[in-house]
Amino acid sequence: MSSTGNSTSGTRYRAPQALCTLVVATYGRSDVLIECLLSIPPGERPSFRVVVVDQNESAFLTEHLAPLAQEMDLEHHRVSFRNASRARNFGAAHSSTPWLAFPDDDCRFLPDTLAIARERLSRDDLDLVSGQIVDETGRPHIIDWFPRETELQPHGYERCFAEATFFIRKRVFDRVHGFDPNFGPGSQFPSNEGGDMLCRLWRSGVPLHSLYTPALRFFHPNKDDGHSPEVHARVETFAFGEAAFTLRHRAILPTRSISWRLAKMSARVVLGSGPPRRRRIVYLRGFLRGALAYLRQNGHTASHASERGLHAR
After folding, report:
1. Do 176 and 235 lie in a common domain?
2. Does the pTM exceed 0.70?
């Protein structure tokens, strides 16, 4: 990892008793990133530090972020690589708070999001807290979110967890060396980096005390709605990474239900028509390509020892 410098050095707002660092990996965005940061309520800024990891080639964000450093505890680091998981790990390494979170650069906090988070993070019995994504009206979207509070488990976790909506103790994050840079945007398998980290925590054998609560809400735009070529490309990219993730963690994931879902989708491709059929074809093609790529790289029986060696890099 390398950085081209801290663009917010000098006189800055400081939050010496901060509870959590919000690590925001960003590329190619400015206005929505600023909206995200300004959605942090002033009353919550003493409890939440911000580390922006800037993967842009130019320094265009500097002039936008420098004034915000007078209003919140914000560090701006420019890095010379483009990989979301690596950027998040870089930001986490520049944090000294007990908790970490990784909001997307185009999300927004609702007025009560961080107050609810602060209350949950103050509990000694939790290592990970997860919330849900909502639309402009506050209604859950993108994922079929579970309607009640629950502990995260391998079966059904996908209704309770997303990269942009969870908080994790830093010591727990460090236990598995954070995100695997082989998963997530900018990597070989460009999705499911959060699920991969969660599964590695479960497989570590150390108890993980987690809570999903639908009261913890983040606004996030739905960029995968519709049937445009751009949407289809994102769907295929997601499926590519999801296949590799599924094969990597097939020992603990509910593979029977995953196989059944893929079989039903295949049947609908055969029997269906119109735009939904095309979207399913794109997803299945991406999943097949991702599975083949993962098997070529790792073989049919990749050992746990080799995976531990990968994480220790």
Report:
1. no
2. yes
Residues 6+ apart with CB under 8 A from 240: 189, 190, 191, 286, 287, 289, 290, 293
15 and 124 both lie in a single domain: yes
Degrees, nearest 5: CA angle 131-137-142: 50
pLDDT in tens, 192-234: 999 999 999 999 988 999 999 999 999 998 877 777 889 999 9
Token pair belonging to 17 = 């008793």
Q: Which amino acid is at 116?
A: I
Query: CA-to-CA distance for 265 and 17, rounded, in angstroms?
Result: 50
Contact at 8 Å (CB) between 294 and 243?
Answer: yes
Does the pLDDT value for residue 114 go beyond 50? yes
Same-domain pairing of 271 and 295: yes
The count of other CB atoms within 10 Å of the CB of residue 273 is: 9
| CA angle at 235 for the pair 37 and 274, rounded to the nearest 5° | 130
Instruction: Output the domain CATH number for residue 139.
Output: 3.90.550.10
40: which DSSP letter?
Answer: S
| Contact residues for 303 (Cβ-Cβ < 8 A; gap 6+) | none
Pairing of β 128-134 and β 166-169: antiparallel
Instruction: Check residues 306 and 183 and name the one with the higher pLDDT.
Output: 183
Supply the range of the domain harboring residue 238: 229-311
Which domain-ending residue is among 190, 219, 248? 219
If asked whether residues 120 and 265 sit together in one domain, one would say: no
Q: Please give the structure tokens belonging to residue 138.
A: 């506050």
One DSSP character per residue, 54-112 reads: E--SS-TTHHHHTGGGGTS-EEEEEES---HHHHHHHHHHT--SSEEE---TT-EE-TT
| One domain, residues 76 and 205 | yes
Q: Which residues contact 196 (CB under 8 A, 6 or more apart)?
A: 179, 180, 183, 245, 248, 249
